[in-house]
Write a structure and sequence with these properties.
This protein is 35% helix and 22% strand. The two termini are 41 Å apart. Strands 2-1-7-3-4-5-6 form a seven-stranded mixed beta sheet, sandwiched between helices. The protein is an alpha+beta fold.
Length: 385
């Protein structure tokens, strides 16, 4: 039995915790929720992991009907965001260059490092320590952010607050006071070096160790109209340089699309370990009810960003708010479902509406559907509802 539990925990954490929790309740409760999950699986393609992580046993009808799970989401996005364009949003270097060249505001790209390539004396690209040093010094980079090009959830992000250049290396001081040599971080994975985003004082005061972002969910229609369908936000914890929960927990909230007002503020430690709060637990800054400054201008600019990438018709934009306006930290063509927790509703209807609009427009794109754990017949029944 112990071995079975260990294997279960390794391969399906949600099912493991579900089984443990269900052992604490009467059999009738277990049976009731098993059939509840099965109905949602048949009607929405909901996975057991989603049922457990999003606490569907406690959710009201509106949330259940509006929630968009991964399986159904994948079906819609296969049409809205064709597979051939994936690299433009999933590789941070290519996304950076593409957005920069179509007028979408980004941080400055100092250097792209790829150890397998050869870039003789290029002003932006390097494949070894010598050329990384040369490029960073030529651009007077006294601080920067370093990221792996294929990472997500805040993984592999290093914020360098001070750089001391030497003839054959550089001494880096991280935002938290720790230090290392540049040669120690240049390994076998591609990296980008970019300028540090300077957020507005309104956002900086929420937590100064991280760049605190808003996730804008946008859609683009055949008539070239862009819509903001949902907005939610992330704020880091004291001493952590990322606002993502992957950095050890964070603070999340919904944002009213019309007014820019923050609501449903949560301290997020894990999917089933959240607490409603009013203020940031470290800075004590009021979050609930805060109104984002220059909201209408920010929202309009993000809609313009969506119009600039018509090959991606539904996007999740991680936006930093600066004095110059919204700066794109990252754009996602396939995003996580977590924001639906903080909004208290899902975005299923909005994504379906966009999908149906393009389907009706009869646009023919070379399309290959991703493998899905649900069979095509099951998916088609769900989508047809």
């Amino acid at each position: 039995i112990v071995m079975k539990y260990k294997l279960l925990k390794k391969y399906n954490t949600a099912l493991y915790h579900f089984v443990l929790d269900m052992q604490k309740v009467p059999l009738s409760y277990l049976v009731k929720h098993f059939f509840d999950y099965y109905r949602l699986f048949k009607s929405k393609g909901l996975s057991l992991e989603e049922y457990y992580n999003y606490s569907f046993e406690n959710r009201d009808l509106q949330y259940r009907e509006s929630f968009l799970g991964k399986n159904e989401e994948r079906f819609y996005l296969d049409l809205l965001n064709p597979m051939k364009y994936y690299i433009l949003s999933r590789n941070k270097f290519w996304a950076h260059k593409m957005l920069e060249n179509i007028g979408v505001r980004k941080s400055e790209l100092y250097c792209y490092y790829h150890p397998e390539a050869t870039y003789p004396q290029n002003q932006d690209y390097a494949s070894d320590l010598h050329n990384v040093l040369r490029i960073l010094q030529s651009k007077n980079a006294s601080s920067f952010v370093m990221k792996a090009t294929e990472s997500s959830h805040g993984d592999s992000v290093m914020v360098i607050s001070k750089v001391e250049y030497h003839e054959d290396d550089a001494h880096l001081t991280l935002f938290n006071g720790q230090s290392c040599k540049l040669s120690e971080v240049l390994k076998d994975q591609p990296l980008i070096f970019e300028s540090v985003v300077r957020q507005t004082e309104q956002f900086a005061q929420l937590n100064r160790s991280s760049v605190n972002t808003l996730r804008f969910m946008t859609t683009l229609y055949p008539n070239k109209e862009a819509k903001v369908i949902a907005v939610w936000g992330k704020v880091g914890r004291q001493g952590v340089c990322v606002d993502n929960a992957g950095g050890g927990g964070n603070v999340d909230f919904g944002v009213d699309v019309e007014t820019g007002t923050l609501f449903n503020v949560y301290r997020f430690d894990s999917m089933r370990n959240m607490e409603r709060i009013e203020c940031h637990p470290d800075s004590n800054m009021q979050l609930n009810g805060m109104v984002v400054e220059n909201w209408e201008s920010i929202k309009q600019q993000v809609m313009d960003y969506q119009k600039a990438i018509p090959f991606c018709k539904a996007a999740g934009w991680d936006i930093a708010i600066t004095d110059e306006g919204p700066v794109v930290v990252e754009v996602n063509d396939f995003w996580d479902c977590t924001g639906q927790l903080f909004l208290g509703r899902g975005w299923r209807n909005e994504i379906r509406d966009c999908y149906k609009a393009w389907q009706k427009a009869n646009k023919r794109y070379p399309m290959e559907r991703q493998l899905n754990v649900l069979g095509s017949k099951h998916l088609k029944k769900i989508v047809a509802r």
